[in-house]
Amino acid sequence: MKSMSFSPAFAAVVAIAAVTAADAAHARTSFDGPWNVQIMTQRGECDSGLGFGVDIRDGVVNGYGGFDVSGRVAHNGAVEVRISSGGSSASGSGRLAASSGHGSWRGNGSRGACSGSWSASRR
User: Fold this and answer.
1) pLDDT of residue 24
2) Looking at the domain assignment, is residue 94 inside a domain?
3) Which domain, by its residues, includes 44?
4) Residue 78, class by beta-carbon neighbours within 10 Å (0-12 exposed, 13-18 middle, 19+ buried)?
5) How many whole angstroms separate alpha carbon 27 and alpha carbon 66?
6) Is residue 2 domain-resident?
7) How far is Cα 13 from Cα 84, in angstroms, rounded to an integer?
8) Residue 23 lies in a domain
9) Of 115, 123, 122, nearest to 39 (Cα)?
10) Under a CB-based contact definition with an 8 Å cutoff, are residues 6 and 109 in contact?
């Protein structure tokens, strides 16, 4: 595991980026409900393997904690978001399917840039 450069809240923000998207209407989607998300860091000084839950409602992700999430899940499962917490920010993109999803993320925080992949599964 790489050394931690962002707070645990920021790591959660990065993972939440994986389960939201732009370009969808605010309407119920087949992706609504609780999801587990795990992030893996391939570059930079961020923790890897962190996991937690999120909830998607009407195509919009509901995050937990002190961070801003903007984005939605499209009806075809495409995801793309922007997330920030304090001086840290991250963006992620990818795709959800019926019970799982995956994609990539990148962010900037107190110790520089990080990037990696994410995976999600329904709870």
Assistant:
1) 39
2) yes
3) 8-122
4) middle
5) 25
6) no
7) 7
8) yes
9) 115
10) yes
